User: Which sequence fits this backbone?
């Protein structure tokens, strides 16, 4: 799994039926070395009520369909948790709200 | 999921039976930082009636088979929606027809 | 899906039983910007009777098992069609036999 | 599969139900040429009781759900073993505890 | 599928039960342009009795579980054949034992 920051949203009216009612968010990868943004934004589906500015954990590939909300959906990136803390080598390197 | 722009089409007569009747489009990735084309074109299967010039959302891997039209098909990139708007940090950065 | 050109073949006698009788071809990626070879060759399994020099469409990952011939086979790159034409922005950029 | 070194942990309170009780660790890839860290840290789920500083073997994609603990879970990187030794070209290049 | 050369092995005592008895080999990618080593070594599971120095064909992702030996196992890279010959553009570029 990887971390990302929620930075926006996508609206699509003409879409696959199975996506009806799903919240499509734009996220940007967060590098866990620096806790800075790194790489290109992507679209992800929310299953935990994430909001703009929050750091989330997401998973990709077929595993992104392994939640109640995304079963059998054509999604390849799903937010699976909002990150509270990250500790690296015994030091707290991230606390929710700090980024 | 990622965004891409439809730029063309592919015709294949001698192909896997399961692809019979599927519309094969050429898409080019759209970077959501700049909303410019970035990367190499690829072939994708259309499930929403996308047309040339439209910005679409697509998914890859096994999830590209998770639509009614693509179930059990040998496809690894499926268009799952036509993008109307993208908002990033409270600003509308893309509106359908603008690219 | 991606395009590739068939450039060779692989013979493996001691192999997984499920691969028995499958035609293993060497393909090289074709970039759809330039229609030139780009990247490293890879091994792919043929399901459509492709021959050396032909431009084919292939799919990867679990979708490469979604053909009659490759169901339950340990393959991660399958040729699913021989390309006749590619049109980009209203121009025919590739016709079978041209490369 | 790849090797990685456990360097930390992630806490997420608001998360997908199916992740309840899973240990989320931060790992950094270990290059098997040099046995040094290489690349960006990522989040992985522990199934073998790995601890900080240990070199582990992990697998990704759908295979990361192929353990008793991770079946049907939205995880795409799972620790599947703690590495005791690695031999390359007849030489022991890694022994547990050495890194 | 890709080619790789077997260069070593990994021992892991504390591991996922489902890996019990599996032979874990270290392989290094072989570029089919030059037939030289290219890229970083990785861990793969053997299903064909490959030995050090042999050039093998392997597959990744979910397809690496599509052999009798690896069904439902948490593996994402499986050796599926020992390569005898590779022909490119009508020339034999590799014969078993030559590398």
Assistant:
């Amino acid at each position: 799994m990887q971390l990302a920051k929620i930075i926006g949203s996508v609206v699509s009216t003409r879409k696959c039926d199975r996506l009806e009612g799903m919240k499509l968010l734009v996220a940007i990868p967060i590098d866990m070395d620096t806790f800075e943004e790194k790489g290109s934004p992507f679209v992800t589906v929310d299953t935990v009520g994430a909001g703009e500015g929050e750091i989330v954990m997401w998973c990709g590939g077929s595993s992104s369909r392994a939640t109640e909300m995304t079963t059998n959906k054509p999604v390849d990136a799903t937010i699976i948790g909002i990150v509270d803390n990250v500790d690296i080598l015994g030091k707290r390197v991230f606390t929710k709200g700090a980024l």
Summary: Chain D has one domain: 2-95. The mean pLDDT of chain D is 96. The interface with chain B takes residues 62 of chain D (CB under 8 Å).
